[in-house]
Fold this protein.
Amino acid sequence: MKKLIAILLTVTLVLGVVGLASAEYPKKNIKMLCPWGAGGGTDAVLRALCLSAEKELGKTIVVENKTGGGGLIGHTSIAQAKPDGYTVGMITFELQTYKPQGTGTITWEDYIPLCLINTDAASLTVNKAWAEANKITDVATFVEYCKAHPGEVTIGNSAPASVWHIGAGLFATETGIDVKYVSFEGGAAAVTALAGGHIEAVSVSLAECRSQLDAGNVICLGYMDSARPALYPDIPTFQEQGYDIVYGTWRGLAVPKKTDAAIVTKLEETFKKATEDPAFVEFMNNGMYTIAYKNSAEFSEFLAKNAADVDATMAALGLKK
Amino acid sequence: MDWGLLLSSYGSVLTDINVILMTFLGAAGGVIIGAIPGLTATMGVALLVPFSFGMDLIPSIGLLLGVYCGGMYGGSISAILLHTPGTPSAAATVLDGWPMTQKGEAPRALAVAMFASFCGGMIGALCMTFLSPLIAQAALAFGPSEMFMLAVFGLSVIISISGKSIVKGLIAAFFGLIICTFGMDKTSGYIRFIPTNAHFLYEGIPFIPALIGLFAIAEVFSSLEGIARGEKSSAGAVNVKVDRVLPSFKDIKLIAKNVIMGGFIGTFIGAIPGAGGDISAFVSYGVSKSTSKHPEEFGKGTPEGVAAAESANNGCSGGAMIPLLSLGIPGDSVTAILIGAFVMNGITPGPMMYVEKLDIVYAVFAALLLANLCMLIVGCLGIRGFVKLITIDKKILLPSIMIVSLVGAYTINQNIQDVGLAIVFGIIGYLFNKHEIPLSPILLTLILGPMAESNLRRYVQIADGNAISMFTRPITIIFAVLAIISLIYSVYLNKKANKKEETPAEA
């Protein structure tokens, strides 16, 4: 009898503790790892998101920028953190390139994907004076020009094997054109070179082209999303122009493998609500970041397809080891 | 130029107590952040941006610009007093600032640095107000080939900062250029010369930990050696009496030329996207030395050297704002973060800002002037306190510097391997010091090497392998000629200075 009571007591206690563990989560502040530097786009989105999520969570989320190695160090730290739910991290597009490029072994399968937060489509943006001189008005005329002048047109991007480099590569492979890819130190530097007429085109995000676009120094020929950009409804998508290319960068949240399922669900809900917070929505609209929430299951599916696409394009570009 | 609007914007900013308070707080914080090795103005601004979300635009811009300007000056305090540039931009200030401290002229050096920073900053802010659209167009003309030649011109300064022996300067420079090639090739993504598991080196040698190692930690090692050999650890009767917080009239006259030149050089280099305070300080130092009547005194503790470096790195802050506001393109790492602060407030910097939001543009100009003014006041108030740093007993000072340095090396990437790297560079710096190999050329090459390499390769890609064709581009040619002149002239000056030293009879 005593034994039975003891067992019963133990079971209740254990169950109670387990129950409490997820019910009480979070008991302390949460650490949020950012693989990119303070002040950059990823950092800005993440900090704004955390401000909104804190309202839901009732605890502080401390953003830590663990940078270096082209994001590899931060991405690795997230996967290797203690799976207790108190370390969450933002994963970004670059995660898909480490393994194909041979710089790292980590892939999306080393995490539990929590949710997709945002996607930003690539664009094809050209120098206005150059486009006018060569009568280029849309993607078709651009492709035509490139076919007539093989190997002459330069498309700028933000870094080798970066999302925009691969985006340009995808476009060139799909349309069968021969162009030069030149990497700059970030998208802004590429756009500067474009505005100065040092290169003919860039394949970076529309947000990075925005000020030159407003000033009329550059024109955007096409947007690689399934819908036109909200702030620039005059810019057509690639799909509208008959090129089935939807491509861009993405940012999402992930936790280390083996994190408790209840905690994953709790975080998933918290951040879903955060993405709907009016303050966050306003921030994202101002910065021209597109909110694209997907839950854990949808995000995993998205990552699997995206990884395969990136791998194939990198192989075509000769970036794969 | 809309004078009425300009005046009313200036008036409203300079009389708004909220803006003044925020800018002053920013400047005070910036000076402290700048003085601590490893904490840079960039970092200070990045960390404050989220706090500024809730504020109105102009007070928040004032706060951020205050940190920016304060940080630029703050870096010189530790450069002068402790032989440790608090920020990369203050690396050139060490060259003459530290020898001045060794001569017992620390208060004078600090006053000169502060005055030069202020004047440089004002020149930058005024240039920004009146010449912005003009300079912005010039900055756009800088493509890959121009950037490459600008870097080469910057590298020609090496001889000027080499000290007595050109050979030893070149040893340091080549050491720097070789380690620049470590890490990921920025054109093809190929990983060069590092073990594949050394992820922290993928983006090249991390600059801040290297800087901290070469200067701060190496200096600690050298001082320890001195103490071990029986040198006194307490500073004893060092002259730290501060008679005046501003430089004397005689000093102002002495440095006037360097300050004005530095301010303009800083503004112009700052306006070129991708080139910042560190490069402009070195270039200004080199130019000041070559045009000085007594170049042999540079490197031995002349206020002119301090003034040249400090006016340029502060002029840079005004310069960097030019492409930010008029093109929407950040001129350096701080303005790259500022652009985010504008966007968060629903304003996109760029050419359209001059058309639609001219009042905000003028308010930003005014905020920058205010930030420089606040920096001057903070400096004047603080100078007596800063100087006391060198009176601290080395038994307390050295471990403190070591701890701050190691923490600083960690903070920049939050990576423990960077701390190890800083120590390795500390040992390298110590050994170089021992053999009188100058350290500044290593820094200069670490800054300019990657800039030269990636821009050259970029140009070669665009020009289908025809690198020679860059000599059909006027700006490229101008910088090439400047580089050659600077190189030949500084070798000549070095020879002359060494000769003068061999025949001391003339005194």
Notes: Chain A is about 45% helix and 20% strand. The CA atoms of residues 25 and 263 of chain A lie 7 Å apart. Chain A touches chain B through 52 residues (CB under 8 Å).
